[in-house]
Structures are given as C-alpha cells and as structure tokens.
From TrEMBL:
Keywords: Cell membrane, Ion channel, Ion transport, Membrane, Metal-binding, Potassium, Potassium channel, Potassium transport, Transmembrane, Transmembrane helix, Transport, Voltage-gated channel
Gene: Kcnk12
Any single Pfam family the record assigns to this protein: Ion_trans_2
Membrane topology: Multi-pass membrane protein
Location of the protein in the cell: Cell membrane
Entry protein name: Potassium channel subfamily K member 12
C-alpha cells in the first residue's frame, strides 16, 4: 500500500458565466440618446398614421358632400343668370385673390393700421400665424424674415423663463409648507436666515407641475371660451377649439378673434384677447414640455424593457451568492488614491477579492477608514435633512435616463425631481 493519505476531493469549478449575445454587444455601443431618438421617431410616425386615418374617416364624407353642393350651386347659378361656367370660375379666382389680400364681403377692421399690425406681429413672434393677414409687398416680406428670426427666438426664451418661474414658484411653496409644518411641531422654532440658493434642494415632482399646469390651462380656456362665445357669436365648442388652436400656436386661421370693425367695449375686449392669448400660449407651451418629460420616461422604460429582453441570458442566476454588504475590500484605499492621481489600477480578481474568510483579521486602519466614510455620509444626510434639503446630489443625471439638455428640456432636467441630477 502507498503511504500517501486519501486524495482530497476535486475542487469544484465554477460554471462559466454565459457570454453576452451579439445584439447586446451592439446595444452597449449604441448611444442611449440615439436609441431614444430612433424610438421616438418611429412612435411619431405611427402616431401620424393613426391621426391621418381618424381624420380621413371623420372629414372625408363632409368634404365630398361640400364639393357636390358647390358644383350644383355653380351650375344652377350659371343656368339662372346665363353666365358661362368658365367665366364664373375666373370671377371666383379674382375673389380668392382679393380674399387673400384682406378684402371681405362684410365690413372688417383695417388690416394694416397700428392695432391691426400689432395683432399681426403678435401672431408672428408667438409662431401662431393665423394667415388672415400676410405682407403683400416685397419689402414687407423681406422685413418679416429678419423680424421673425429674432422675434421668435426672443419669445421662445420668454416661454422658457416662464416655465422656470412656474417651477421655482412651486419649489418656494413646497419649502414654505415644510417650514410651517416644522414650526408647528416645534422642530424649527426660529425662522431660517435667507440663503443665496435656498431652493436648490427643493425640486417639485413632474406630476405636480403637470397637474397644476393642466388645471390652469383648463380654467383659462373655459374663461376665454366664454368671452369669445359671447362677443364673437361662436358656439362654445368652437370657442374651445379656437383656444386650443391658438394657445398651442397651430393657428389654422379658420376662426380668428378681434376681426370685426367694431365691438361693444372694444378696448376692453382687445385687452382681454391679448392677455388670454399671452397667458394661454405660455401655459400650453409649458404643459407641452412637461408632457414631453413623461413621454421621455415612457421611452426610457421601453428601452430598459428591450435591453432586459435582449440581455436575459446575461443576468446572474437567482442562486448566485451575494457579496457581503459590510465587507471591507482589501486595497480599496490604494485604488482610491490611484484614481485620484489619474492612474489605472491593476486588474483585480472578482472571485478572490470581494470577500473575507470568517477567521481572517482585518487591520484597524481599514476598519477606521470605512467607519469614517460611513459616519461622514450619515452626518451629511442628517445635515441636509435638518436644513431642509431632502435630496442630495449623489446620482448623476445620466443614470436616470436624462441628459442635461438645452432650453426647456435643460430647465426641467435641472429643476424637477424625476429628471434632475440631484435625486
């Protein structure tokens, strides 16, 4: 017999981790913003197709009936008055040209006096563009190009600042309500001193902003529709339709307010018309931007679902052991020092480094360093909560699917709770 003892049992090898599929590798190289853009473009295409189908089904029969009635009217008029149909159509073309120049059968207000011109430039810089008044001269068209370039840019900046003020107002209300509740409970006996950036930690939810802007838009549209229905003689549904078309800067031009030669209380009506349009455009513009944030959240959710479906085989198995939460990893201080100096640490073994044996001792230096870090984080969170800043800046904006952005998107990414970097 051999003097050797029993051979130790063979060491169990860990099964290899499944390799990532090729589509996942391609997905990792694809920029998230590009994927979001492509997905949104596809959804908008489907939305356009669905809208065209619905409107074609609703409006096409009425158009066919109107064409048939107009053809019968032309034939009856030509037969009754002895006018050839080609001559009658030529006369109607002249009338259409006069209509485009602002001539109407009924008495209307002058188009190019100062109030009419002011109404026109208001529709230009707000991008409404009803089309009822258009420049006919070469000089007017050339001036409109330069005037609209700077006017539209300035007005969009005004809309963005209006949205920023709305969000800041909500943050101020949130802070005031919290301070009042703390004073009532006795936790905040003395009033806080004013700070330079006192609203930095107060970020209202996008759903609260959506609710407030939606209620304000509905209230504004209902009040404006009541005014237009009583003054212009439109139906209430037509007035609501005009409010949405105008406030959203679509501006079809089939219904236009303040176009008669005279009104009762004309000055008061024109002032109310101006204020309703100004507030309505600002409110609907802000509401559209907030809704776009919700659409972006849906796109991020869809991208995550697609990514999870693609990488289902790459996820760890449910029975895999989890790392210890409070384990101190050897060499962590060295890696932090190398990262601060800009050097790249050596590759580490994830199987041997992330755990310690139960009988292994750790140095007092590593223990005190880890406790200091945990204590510092705890003190920072307690200090921010006591000072009225419930949200700390610890998660970058790219992790929640929102980049910095520009314009209204940048304002909402920095000032809303669901999209800001400080969450």
């Amino acid at each position: 017999m051999s003097s050797r003892g029993p051979r130790p049992p063979p060491r169990r090898r860990r099964p290899p981790r499944p390799s990532c599929c090729c589509c996942c590798r391609r997905r990792s190289h694809l920029d998230e913003d590009t994927g979001r853009f492509v997905l949104l473009a596809a959804l908008i295409g489907l939305y356009l197709v669905a809208g065209a189908t619905v409107f074609s089904a609703l409006e096409s029969p009425g158009e066919a009936e109107a064409r048939a009635r107009w053809g019968a009217t032309l034939r009856n008029f030509s037969a009754a008055h002895g006018v050839a149909e080609p001559e009658l159509r030529a006369f109607l073309r002249h009338y259409e040209a006069a209509l485009a120049a602002g001539v109407r059968a009924d008495a209307l207000r002058p188009r190019w006096d100062f109030p009419g011109a002011f109404y026109f430039v208001g529709t230009v810089v707000s991008t409404i563009g009803f089309g009822m008044t258009t420049p006919a001269t070469v000089g007017g068209k050339a001036f409109l190009i330069a005037y609209g370039l700077f006017g539209c840019a300035g007005t969009i900046l005004f809309f963005n600042l209006f949205l920023e003020r709305i969000i800041s107002l909500l943050a101020f209300v949130m802070r005031a309500c919290r301070e009042r509740r703390l004073r009532r409970s006795g936790l905040l006996p003395a009033p806080l001193r004013p700070e330079a950036d006192g609203l930095a930690g107060w970020k209202p939810s996008v759903y609260h902003v959506l609710l407030i802007l939606g209620l304000f838009a509905v209230l504004l549209s209902c009040c404006a529709s009541a005014m237009y229905a009583s003054v212009e003689g439109w139906g209430y549904v037509d007035s609501l339709y005009f409010c949405f078309v105008t406030f959203s800067t679509i501006g079809f031009g089939d219904l236009v307010s303040s176009q008669r030669a005279a009104y009762r209380n004309q000055g008061l009506y024109r002032l109310g018309n101006f204020l309703f349009i100004l507030l309505g455009v600002c409110c609907i513009y802000s509401l559209f931007n907030v809704v776009s944030i919700l659409i972006k959240q849906v796109l991020n959710w869809m991208l995550r679902k697609l990514s999870c479906a693609c990488c289902a085989r790459c996820c760890p198995t449910p029975g895999a052991p989890l790392a210890r939460r409070n384990a101190i990893t050897p060499g962590s201080r060295l890696r932090r020092r190398l990262a601060a100096l800009g050097a790249r640490p050596a590759p580490r073994d994830p199987d041997a480094e992330g755990r310690r044996l139960s009988g292994e001792l750790i140095s007092m230096r590593d223990l005190t360093a880890s406790n200091k870090v945990s204590l510092a984080l705890l003190q920072k969170q307690l200090s921010e909560t006591a000072n009225g800043h419930p949200r700390g800046a610890c998660i970058p904006a790219r992790q929640n699917g929102f980049s910095g952005g520009v314009g209204a998107l940048g304002i909402m990414n920095n000032r809303l709770a669901e999209t800001s970097a400080a969450r």
